[in-house]
Design brief:
Length: 403
C-alpha cells in the first residue's frame, strides 16, 4: 500500500469521524452520546490507544472520558492547579500525591477564544502509528464547544425556570394580602410592605368576621422564594378556614401549628401574631407565637405596652409546649402597631441597628396620630437613620386605630 493510499484512507476516516460528530450535534444528541461518539472515533479511526478528557466546569477541569488508563488520575483538577500558555502551548498541572499523567505521552489544550475549555491526554496505538494532532485537536474543539453550548443552554433554561417560579410566587403572595383595608369610623388600618426581593417572606391579614369581631395578624415565614410563598399560601388558607368555623384563638393556633409541622416535618417555621377585637365587649384577645411583640397604645391613658403573651414559633414542634391567651379589657380608643423583624433589624452606614428601643421611643412620641401620618413620619425617620444603606430583609408595618 502506497503512502498516498494510506494518507487518503486516513483522510477518509477523519472525514467520516467529523461527519458523525457534527451530525450528532445537529441532531441535538445528549452530552453522553457526543462523548461516546468522540471516544469511539478516537479509538477506531485516529490511531489512539488511551485517552483522558477533562472539560472545565465551575469547580475545575472534570474528567469526562477515561479509557485505557492504568495509573491513578484525578477526577477533577482545580482551576488554580492549572497554568497554561496559549502562545507557547505549555501546560503545567499540579496534582496531588499518588496521581500522575506520565503514561500519556501527548496532551492537547482546547481553547475557545482565550479560555481553555478542555485538556485531552492521549497515547497512540504503537510506535509506528501516525497521529494527526491538528485534526484531533480540531475534533476535540468541536466536541467541547458543543458541550459548553449545552451547558450554557441548561443554565439559561434553569434561569428561565427560576424566573417563572419567582413570578408565580410573587403572584401567589400578592393574592394573600387583603385587597382593601377598613377606613371607617370604628377602625382605620394602614400597611406598609416593602419586600427585600420580588418574593418576600412576610404576611399580614385583616378579617372582619362580623360586625362585632375583627381578626388581624402578621407573620414571617422562614426562607424565601416559591417554598416560602407556597407555605404562606397554605397557612393563609388554613387560617381563613379555621376562622370561618371558630373564634377560639387557642384552637386556631394549635391547628395552624399542627398543619405547618405536618407539611414541613419541622424544617420550616413561622413567627405569628393573631389578635381579635370585639367591638361589643370592648375586649382584645391575642396570641403571640414567637413574633416581634406588637405595641398596644392606650390613647386615653397615653401609655403603651408590648403584647407578648402566647407561645413559641409555629411549626417547630408537633404540639405547642405552652400556650397563653393574652387579654385586655375595657378598651375604647387605642392603637396597635405590628411589624416584622426587618423593620428593627435595619442598619445605617455606621453599622448600627435601628432596634426595638428606637421604635418604641418613636411610638411613644406618636401615640394618638392617624395611621397614615404615623407611617409617613416613621419611614421618614427610618430613611434618615439608614442613610442610604440597603435593606437586608422584608419590612412590614401594620397599624390599626380603633375608635
Amino acid at each position: 500500500m502506497t503512502t498516498e493510499t494510506v494518507k487518503y484512507q486516513r483522510k477518509e476516516l477523519e472525514l467520516k469521524a467529523l461527519l458523525e460528530i457534527t451530525q450528532a450535534i445537529n441532531e441535538n444528541k445528549t452530552s453522553s452520546v457526543l462523548l461516546n461518539i468522540f471516544k469511539f472515533t478516537c479509538l477506531v479511526h485516529l490511531n489512539i490507544r488511551s485517552l483522558l478528557l477533562y472539560v472545565v466546569d465551575q469547580d475545575g477541569y472534570r474528567q469526562n472520558i477515561s479509557h485505557g488508563i492504568k495509573g491513578a488520575v484525578p477526577e477533577i483538577i482545580p482551576l488554580d492547579k492549572v497554568n497554561d500558555n496559549k502562545v507557547t502551548g505549555e501546560l503545567n498541572i499540579v496534582v496531588e500525591e499518588g496521581y500522575s499523567f506520565d503514561e500519556l505521552e501527548t496532551y492537547l489544550p482546547v481553547y475557545h477564544k482565550e479560555k481553555m475549555l478542555a485538556i485531552l491526554f492521549l497515547m497512540k496505538k504503537d510506535e509506528t502509528a501516525e497521529l494527526d494532532l491538528d485534526f484531533t485537536q480540531a475534533l476535540t474543539n468541536i466536541l467541547v464547544v458543543a458541550l459548553e453550548n449545552k451547558r450554557f443552554a441548561r443554565k439559561q433554561l434553569e434561569q428561565e425556570r427560576l424566573k417563572r417560579e419567582v413570578e408565580i410566587a410573587s403572584n401567589v403572595q400578592r393574592m394573600l394580602f387583603p385587597a382593601n383595608l377598613p377606613q371607617n369610623g370604628k377602625l382605620k388600618a394602614k400597611v406598609t410592605y416593602i419586600p427585600h426581593s420580588t418574593v418576600g417572606g412576610d404576611y399580614y391579614d385583616l378579617i372582619q368576621k362580623s360586625d362585632d369581631e375583627v381578626f388581624f395578624c402578621i407573620a414571617d415565614v422562614s426562607g424565601k422564594g416559591m417554598p416560602a410563598a407556597l407555605l404562606m399560601s397554605n397557612f393563609q388558607a388554613a387560617l381563613r378556614t379555621l376562622l370561618r368555623s371558630s373564634s377560639d384563638l387557642r384552637m386556631i393556633v394549635e391547628q395552624l401549628n399542627y398543619t405547618i409541622f405536618e407539611n414541613t416535618a419541622g424544617e420550616r417555621f413561622i413567627t405569628f401574631f393573631l389578635g381579635c377585637y370585639n367591638f361589643k365587649t370592648r375586649e382584645l384577645s391575642y396570641v403571640n407565637a414567637g413574633h416581634n411583640p406588637p405595641i398596644l397604645c392606650w390613647e386615653g391613658e397615653m401609655r403603651s405596652e408590648l403584647l407578648e403573651a402566647g407561645t413559641t414559633i409555629l411549626g417547630a414542634f408537633e404540639s405547642l409546649p405552652f400556650l397563653e391567651i393574652g387579654k385586655r379589657s375595657h378598651l375604647k380608643g387605642f392603637g396597635i402597631h405590628m411589624y416584622t423583624d426587618g423593620l428593627t433589624e435595619n442598619f445605617n452606614d455606621k453599622d448600627e441597628e435601628y432596634g426595638e428601643e428606637r421604635l418604641w421611643k418613636f411610638v411613644k412620641s406618636q401615640l394618638c396620630v392617624d395611621p397614615d401620618d404615623f407611617h409617613k413620619e416613621f419611614f421618614r425617620e427610618m430613611e434618615a437613620f439608614s442613610n442610604g444603606v440597603d435593606r437586608m430583609d422584608d419590612i412590614t408595618l401594620m397599624s390599626l386605630r380603633f375608635q
